[in-house]
Specification:
This protein is of the alpha+beta class and 103 residues long. The chain contains three helices and five strands; from the N terminus they run E-E-H-H-E-E-E-H.
Length: 103
């Protein structure tokens, strides 16, 4: 677990539990794919993203940025390829992006 500028931020490896993965999959679907611009969340796509995240457990990297108790960003890598890297805009410039990348 890595602490950042504020004692309210930290980065940790995902717990890969369904509650956390559901939140991360929703963030991914709402902000990281081209269809996100439409504002329509596709439940089937959301379910597929959640399953893909769960399938990378132990085989890839899924790091989560936490503020207080809420996920505010994540970094998802599998088979050497970054699948997604995202932080809520209101939490930019706090060192989160660099910490997620391991910098």
């Amino acid at each position: 677990m890595k602490s950042l500028h504020s004692d309210k931020y930290f980065i940790r490896e995902s717990l890969y539990n369904l509650v956390e993965l559901s939140l991360l999959a929703r963030l991914y679907e709402e902000h990281c794919i081209p269809a996100a611009r439409t504002g329509n969340l596709n439940q089937e796509s959301l379910a597929q993203t959640l399953l893909k995240m769960k399938a990378t457990e132990g085989k890839g990297e899924l790091r989560v940025a936490i503020y207080d108790t809420d996920p505010v960003g994540f970094y998802w890598k599998f088979e050497g390829r970054v699948l997604a890297h995202w932080v809520l805009p209101e939490h930019h410039n706090q060192g989160i992006e660099q910490a997620l990348l391991g910098s």
